[in-house]
């Protein structure tokens, strides 16, 4: 099957029919170099051969045959050097970089991407540069060289923002940087990248990405005691989540928002959101969620001095948790005893 696929790729190239017997892809690099050096091989035919090797390299990569893919890309590289085609030469280096990355040969991959980077810098191909920087950043992460990875991702983002395109790549690189900063304990950098990724998600209309980032930021602001900012993030995330029609994803967010309302003294809003959460858990028959909602309402009414309502809610919570053999039973029992 592989041989047939190779033949199909070769047949699709114009200008190769005459040379198919002279230049089979099994010929080694030295023989091909000698034939290409002949003056009677036209530029068009050399270019056609070059395109074939690139296609074969991509084909072998897709088929998981890295050794043959490497052979094809190296042949393409040699042809490009003979043709002094800098743009295609950069592409060949980048193809090899990707191949070596997939193989786990990270140092070789870095060398290839830097070779491509040098050429594309001279050619001022900015989008290609952003792609090379992204690939290099990913490799440095694998090698746990976070400082170099940070520099690569930052440069890629700067280029893409200047060009005003490739929001998906910006989002990817911002996420990678956020992970690095989180590991370093750099909260300022982490927050900066999360917000940058959020802006890209807005442009891409990536609703799930937006919800995740709003929720994460809301939880972080809550942990800092920045209740107004926390509320703003959680509310924005909920507004999107409610449109996605996945009620189970709303449960924790409602509970978080209720707690944030309490911290700000917005007791009516807190009660409304806890009741909304209870109703949602009842609709989807989430027993643990129902018991937790009763518990949250019980604690809320207890703190408001409404002992009768608190007892009613906590008793329901206790009974449900006890029926399930849930360890929260003991905690709810203590709350009832302290009423």
Description of the structure:
Mean pLDDT is 86; it is low at 1-33. α4 (66-83) packs antiparallel against α5, α8 packs antiparallel against α9 and α10 (187-204) runs antiparallel to α11 (207-224). With 339 residues, the protein is mainly alpha-helical. The protein has helices at 2-11, 29-36, 43-62, 66-83, 86-103, 106-123, 126-142, 146-163, 167-184, 187-204, 207-224, 227-241, 251-263, 267-283, 287-303, 307-324, 328-337.
Compressed to H and E, one letter per element, the order equals: HHHHHHHHHHHHHHHHH
Radius of gyration: 30 Å
Regions with pLDDT < 50 over 5+ consecutive residues? 1-33
Mean pLDDT: 86
Short description:
This protein is an all-alpha fold and 339 residues long. It is built from 17 helices and no strands.
Q: What are its keywords?
A:
single chain, 339 residues, mainly alpha, 0% strand, disordered N terminus
List the helices and strands and how they pair.
Layout: H1 2-11, H2 29-36, H3 43-62, H4 66-83, H5 86-103, H6 106-123, H7 126-142, H8 146-163, H9 167-184, H10 187-204, H11 207-224, H12 227-241, H13 251-263, H14 267-283, H15 287-303, H16 307-324, H17 328-337
């Amino acid at each position: 099957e592989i041989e047939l696929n190779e033949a199909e790729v070769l047949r699709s190239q114009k200008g190769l029919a005459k040379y198919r017997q002279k230049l089979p892809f099994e010929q080694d690099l030295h023989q091909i170099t000698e034939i290409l050096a002949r003056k009677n091989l036209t530029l068009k035919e050399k270019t056609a051969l070059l395109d074939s090797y690139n296609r074969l390299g991509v084909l072998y990569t897709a088929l998981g045959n890295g050794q043959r893919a490497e052979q094809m890309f190296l042949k393409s590289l040699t042809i490009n050097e003979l043709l002094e085609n800098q743009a295609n030469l950069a592409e060949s280096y980048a193809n090899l970089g990707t191949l070596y990355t997939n193989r786990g040969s990270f140092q070789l991959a870095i060398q290839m991407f830097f070779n491509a980077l040098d050429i594309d810098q001279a050619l001022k191909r900015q989008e290609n540069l952003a792609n090379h920087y992204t690939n290099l950043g990913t490799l440095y992460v694998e090698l746990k060289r976070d400082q170099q990875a940070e520099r690569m991702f930052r440069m890629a983002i700067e280029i893409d923002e200047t060009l005003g395109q490739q929001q998906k790549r910006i989002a990817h690189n911002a996420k990678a940087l956020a992970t690095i900063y989180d590991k370093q304990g750099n909260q300022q950098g982490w927050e900066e990248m999360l917000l940058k990724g959020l802006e890209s998600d807005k442009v891409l209309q990536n609703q799930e990405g937006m919800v995740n980032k709003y929720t994460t930021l809301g939880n972080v602001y809550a942990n800092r005691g920045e209740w107004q900012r926390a509320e703003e993030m959680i509310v924005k995330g909920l507004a999107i989540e409610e449109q996605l029609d996945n009620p189970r994803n709303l449960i924790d967010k409602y509970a978080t928002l209720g707690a944030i309302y309490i911290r700000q003294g917005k007791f009516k809003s807190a009660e409304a959101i806890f009741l909304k959460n209870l109703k949602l858990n009842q609709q989807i028959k989430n027993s643990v969620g129902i018991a937790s909602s009763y518990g949250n309402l019980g604690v809320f009414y207890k703190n408001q001095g409404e002992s009768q309502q608190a007892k009613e809610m906590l008793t329901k919570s206790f009974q449900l948790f006890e029926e399930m053999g849930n360890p929260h039973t003991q905690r709810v029992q203590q709350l009832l005893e302290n009423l």
